[in-house]
Design a protein that fits this description.
The structure holds two protein chains of two kinds. By secondary structure, chain A is α+β, with helices and mostly antiparallel strands. Chain A is about 50% helix and about 15% strand. In chain A, a hairpin with a 5-residue loop joins strand 3 and strand 4. Chain B is of the alpha+beta class. Chain B folds into two domains: about 55 residues, Fe,Mn superoxide dismutase (SOD) domain (Helix Hairpins, Orthogonal Bundle); about 120 residues, minor pseudopilin epsh fold, CATH 3.55.40.20. Chain B has a three-stranded antiparallel beta sheet. The two termini of chain B are about 20 Å apart. Bound molecules: fe (ii) ion (2 copies). One fe (ii) ion binds next to helix 1 of chain B. Chain B: Its EC number is 1.15.1.1.
């Protein structure tokens, strides 16, 4: 977490009645005594307008993301109980719920970080190693955006598109994930775009291509650079 | 409803027609890899068309006689036989709908099991349709966010509650008493 990202935390806390902790954990996800908590945003809900409306940001963060956090904690407790009782069937039954809600928490946490208002660097192109890797794989940033938007448009149902880094080869690529499946294992998440309808519907309705086009104005490539290794 | 019908459903129809066209071309040129690679686009858009067609028909204005479960007397007997009473059925259906992860549909389905006909509640993901052998979709509920977001936002439990005021039980009864082909009849007429 850079000082830039933390700078406005006092201001942010004033925006919401929140008990979010001050400490940032792995990938920005925050924990209190083993419990997942909703992370603060480093910008105001309305700060990504006109690309994403303040109303969408507020609902998306305060309601959708919060539900994933609450549900993840709830099912984590249940799976811990099932483990304590050595109830394997219950553990297996709970696993998809852990994946879904845990994935929802991780994905949104990464998403908020990889967005920024234009006044805080949103839309500024990447530099350094990430820029080089993008050029190697796609030729140019514009070519990447074009392919990324095609991948987003091709998602059938709810899901995400990610710029990922292959931990085996170091190369970057675009991958789509269904529902709240998280980028784990062989691939490292660099930049994610939420393609669930709740991410854009109030503002763009069925015109999702416009959302995919406009969101690049508020992509925080600095955050993406920090994830790239 | 307007966006859902004139934009979303229309997009499925448009893309389905495009998928059918390119499939026909691939069949004509005996391009098997192309035929295989196009199957998912066909399935998704055809499913979107089928599901929404069934959905519009199984809705009715809340004030209409069709929106009362008494419009489906034989189906109700079977529902009570299966779930105990109508409320238990509704509770089971609502719970199933709220358990869907991501986009999808919840369906009441009549299934032929040997000599016997059974009712069951199933979910299908994204636009997968209920078209299996011996399966008749009786009523479907769209659980994509576009189906409720403008009105209910993230409060999908309220949508799942209120949709029961506008279910067309008359259509459900007809589908219950009919065969699979009967449920899809309007689909053929619409092509
Ligand atoms: Fe989301
Ligand atoms: Fe729909």
């Amino acid at each position: 977490m850079s000082s830039t990202l933390l700078r406005t935390s006092g201001f942010r806390s004033a925006l919401r009645a929140s008990t979010a902790p001050k400490r940032a954990g792995i990938a920005g996800a925050t924990f209190i005594r083993g419990k997942a908590t909703l992370p603060d945003l480093t910008y105001d809900y309305g700060a990504l307008e006109p690309a994403i409306s303040g109303k969408i940001m507020e609902l998306h963060h305060k309601n959708h993301h919060q539900t994933y956090v609450t549900s993840f904690n709830n099912f984590s407790e249940q799976i811990a109980e099932a483990k304590a009782k050595e109830d394997i069937a219950a553990q297996i039954a709970l696993q998809p719920l852990i994946n879904f809600h845990g994935g929802g928490h991780i994905n949104h946490t990464l998403f908020w970080e990889n967005l920024a208002p234009t006044s805080q660097g949103g839309g500024q192109p990447p530099a350094g190693g990430l820029a080089k890797a993008i050029n190697e794989s796609y030729g140019s940033l514009d070519a990447l955006k074009e392919k990324f938007n095609a991948a987003l448009a091709g998602i059938q149902g709810s899901g995400w598109a990610w710029l990922v880094q292959d931990t085996q080869t170091g190369a970057v690529g675009i991958k789509t994930y269904a529902n709240q499946d998280a980028v784990v294992g062989q691939f490292r998440p660099i930049l994610g775009i939420d393609a669930w309808e709740h991410a854009y519907y109030l503002q763009y309705q069925n015109r999702k291509a416009e959302y995919f086009k406009n969101i690049w104005d508020v992509v925080n490539w600095k955050a993406a650079e920090k994830r790239f290794q | 409803m307007e966006l859902h019908h004139s934009k979303h459903h229309q997009t499925y129809v448009t893309n389905l027609n495009a998928a059918v066209k390119s499939q026909q071309e691939a069949i004509q040129s005996s391009d098997i890899p192309a035929q295989v690679s196009q199957q998912q686009a066909f399935r998704f858009n055809a499913g979107g068309h089928i599901n929404h067609s069934l959905f519009w028909q199984n809705l009715a204005p809340a004030s209409s006689a069709e929106a009362k479960s008494s419009a489906a007397p034989k189906l109700l007997v079977k529902i009570k036989q299966t779930w105990g009473d109508e409320k238990a059925f509704l509770d089971a259906f609502k719970t199933t709908l709220l358990g869907i992860q991501g986009s999808g549909w919840g369906w009441l389905v009549k299934v032929q099991v040997g000599q016997e006909e059974r009712l069951t509640i199933v979910t299908t993901k994204d636009q997968d349709p209920v078209v299996g052998k011996g399966e008749v979709p009786i009523l479907g509920v769209d659980m994509w966010e576009h189906a409720y977001y403008l009105q209910y936002l993230n409060g999908k439990a309220a949508y799942v509650e209120n949709i029961w005021n506008v279910i067309n039980w008359k259509t459900a009864e007809e589908r219950y008493l009919g065969k699979q082909a009967d449920a899809f009849k309007a689909l053929k007429a619409g092509l």
